[in-house]
């Protein structure tokens, strides 16, 4: 009786250094691709953001047909010439060349992440006349109501932003109140389902306005000089 014994040849183990070398190569290639994609898309994203912001200027300054870019420096407002450093603002002008207002940015943390805004301020009425969300990852249908709900957006048609007697800040802090309880012109009437986003919007507006509005009112002559000439 013959008994056949099958012996399977044991495969040689892959050296650990070879596996590490392969993994390192994959990681290096992946990292390189991420960097290349980032470098390629960065200017595209920046350009898209610039276009979005400039379009938003005319939304938050209704009636404006032209704009002039400004910079907020340590010395105050100045034209946004090449090389000028500082926060970017926009002066909007009506068709007859009169100042419609100044658009300024603001930001605060919402439920998901930082929400970026653009607000329009009219020095003549000392009030906020428009708002626009520039970037947000808030929950669609809930948090994004602060940029889509018509009733909520009425808050920013003439929201009080007068200065205090010293001209160093707002006379009254801009705050969000529970829906239906607004009693003062500097209060933002809240919206159901977007309390966190609404509070972020109020904080962002109040913090930026407290710093920027006094400079806008003080440097009205700079705004007059910036008026576009036909």
From TrEMBL:
FMN-binding domain residues are 110-212
- Which GO cellular component terms, listed alphabetically, does the Swiss-Prot or TrEMBL entry include? plasma membrane
Gene Ontology molecular functions: electron transfer activity; FMN binding
What keywords would UniProt list here?
Cell inner membrane, Cell membrane, Electron transport, Flavoprotein, FMN, Membrane, Phosphoprotein, Translocase, Transmembrane, Transmembrane helix, Transport
Identify its membrane topology class.
Single-pass membrane protein
Q: Spell out where the chain crosses the membrane.
A: 20-40
Q: Which InterPro entries is this protein grouped with?
A: FMN-bd (IPR007329), Ion_transpt_RnfG/RsxG (IPR010209)
Q: What's the short name of a Pfam family annotated to this entry? A: FMN_bind
- What is this enzyme's EC? 7.-.-.-
**SMART domains, alphabetized:** FMN_bind (SM00900)
Localisation: Cell inner membrane
Described by its record, this protein's role is as follows: Part of a membrane-bound complex that couples electron transfer with translocation of ions across the membrane.
Family that this chain belongs to: Belongs to the RnfG family.
Name by which UniProt lists this protein: Ion-translocating oxidoreductase complex subunit G
What organism, scientifically named, is this protein from?
Answer: Thiohalocapsa marina
């Amino acid at each position: 009786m013959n008994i056949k014994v099958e012996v399977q040849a044991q495969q040689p183990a892959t050296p650990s250094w070879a596996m590490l070398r392969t993994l390192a190569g994959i990681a290096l290639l992946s990292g390189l691709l991420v960097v290349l994609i980032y470098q390629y898309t960065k200017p595209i994203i920046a350009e898209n953001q610039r276009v979005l912001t400039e379009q938003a200027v005319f939304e938050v300054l209704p009636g404006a047909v032209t704009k002039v870019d400004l910079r907020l420096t340590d010395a105050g407002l100045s034209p946004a010439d090449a090389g000028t450093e500082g926060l970017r603002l926009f002066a909007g002008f009506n068709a007859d060349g009169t100042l419609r207002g100044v658009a300024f940015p603001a930001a605060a943390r919402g439920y998901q992440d930082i929400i970026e805004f653009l607000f329009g301020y009219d020095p003549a009425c000392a009030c906020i006349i428009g708002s626009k969300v520039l970037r947000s990852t808030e929950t669609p249908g809930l948090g994004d109501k602060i940029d889509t709900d018509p009733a909520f957006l009425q808050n920013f048609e003439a929201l009080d932003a007068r200065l205090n007697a010293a001209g160093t800040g707002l006379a009254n802090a801009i705050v969000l109140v529970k829906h239906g309880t607004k009693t003062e012109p500097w209060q933002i009437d809240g919206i159901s389902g977007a309390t966190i986003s609404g509070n972020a919007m109020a904080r962002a507006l109040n913090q930026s306005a407290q710093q920027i509005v006094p400079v806008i009112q003080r440097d009205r002559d700079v705004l007059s000089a910036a008026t576009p000439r036909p």
